[in-house]
Amino acid sequence: MKRLWLTLAALAALSTGLVAEDAPFGALTLPSPASVSAPSPAAAAVPAEREWLVLVFINGVNDLGMLGDAEKDINEMEAVGSTDKVAVLAEYGLMGSDDDSNLRFQRGTKTLYITRDEDPEEITSPVIYSSNDSDMGSAANLVRFARRGLRLYPARKLAVVVWNHGAGLQGISFDDVSRNHIEIDSLGRAMEEISRAAGRKIDVFATDACRMQMAEVAYELRNAASVVVGSEETISDAGYPYAPILRRLAANPSMNAERLGALIVDEYIASCSDNATLSAVRTAALPTFVKALDNWVSAIRSDPAALAAASDKTLTDSVSHFSNKDSKDLVDYIDKVDASPRAGGRVRVAGAALRNYISGALLIRSGALPAGPPPDGDPYTAANGLAVYIPDLRYASDNYERLAFAADSLWDDYLLDMMRERLK
Fold first, then answer.
1. Half-sphere exposure (CA, 13 Å, Cβ side) for 208?
2. 3 state SS of 161
3. Which of 1, 156, 198, 349 has its CA 20 to 30 A from that of 16?
4. 241 upstream amide cis, omega within 30 of 0
5. 330 close to 235: Cβ distance less than 8 angstroms
6. pLDDT at 215 exceeding the cut of 90
């Protein structure tokens, strides 16, 4: 999320012993029914299966909790609440400060069954589960939360939202006390475990977190989720507008995954005033996307003049990038390479096919503000819905080559060719 990421050096001494032990996902077990707080009467009186279960994993154990953003978003959810067709659960851990700026900690994590209220300041939803394990940077805890929700509130369709700071290929859900976060390959495995628990793909996986809509991240989730929603750039201070999103879902619970993904994009962009990006990716299109990308890359690699142009740091520096300079807009890069006089006809044909496939089949919806070039000072000049890793100075092989995208595409080989070309 787009907030000042505070350095909490004072918490270093507290982090010892607070890291959750990540058991293998397959070994996870749910607590016995006796250890789970009973759902509220409103929760218990609903039909056995609803249309949607919406799970929001809210990591406020960092500056976002101190700024009150976690509580604000829960209160936004409570403006609508759960219905007999849509169950909304939020799991949250929290760190904050009192009026004297002293740090305060919520004891453990809490799972809320979100109920409607008229109070925009106080959280009134019942706690249906609590745990002393407060590590919100644990993929295993994310899986436990989802499995618990699936068991208590079965539904035909499932949406999972991870709320926190995002850092693209460096991961998501940073817990400043445990010093843990969820790596991208761990996120993929966690979502696959949730998908197995549901007996089907997650319908919508969304990141209310910065810089997560990268080809590499979406591809890691291809087997677990049907639609992936995320931002190429930072997420605005307010994050997702939960009240209008849930209100429209409650009014039309029969909507499918792609409709909900597009709805999240539309409502988020409508809620922002500037410097906002969000898109929804259709994961079923990712295998063909990789083939089209490989075809373009192969055309460049077989043409020395085109490879020299595509590797040139002046060209790559001109590509629209985001707050992490190594994350660049893929379509803008295709356009810059294809516009080079050194790119041959085969490169341009393959580039056009790739560009058209991204906009026509891969992206369900893409939005950006401003629609044209942003004013001076904003970090990007074009956002077309999907970023990709193009290293500025150094190729981080240890991190990158753990990813399925590196294993299944030619992109990692292309990046190595690019680095070698720059050394000539």
1. 26
2. strand
3. 1
4. no
5. no
6. yes
Closest of 161, 163, 383 to residue 276, by C-alpha: 383
pLDDT at residue 275 in the model = 83
Mean pLDDT for all residues in the chain: 86
Determine the Cα–Cα distance for residues 347 and 303; give it in Å rounded to an integer: 8
Sign of the alpha-carbon torsion through 281, 384, 325, 11: negative
Q: In sequence order, what DSSP letters do the residues of 351-388 get, joined into one string?
A: HHHHHHHIIIIIEEEEEEESSSPPPTT-S-S---S-EE
The pLDDT tens digits of the residues spanning 358-399 come to: 999 999 999 998 765 555 555 577 899 999 999 988 888 888
Q: Distance (Å, rounded) from C-alpha 364 to C-alpha 383?
A: 15
DSSP 279: E
Cα–Cα dist 173/181, whole Å: 5
Determine phi and psi for 79, rounding to 5 degrees.
Answer: -65, -20
In angstroms, the CA 188 to CA 120 distance is 35
**Residues 327-346, mean pLDDT to the nearest whole number:** 96
Name the pairing type of β-strands 387-389 and 155-163: unpaired
- What pLDDT digit, counting tens, does each position of 223-239 carry? 999 999 999 999 987 89
Q: Which residue has better confidence, 45 or 33?
A: 45
Distance CA 123, CA 380 (A): 37
Closest C-alpha to 354, from 391, 397, 386, 327? 386
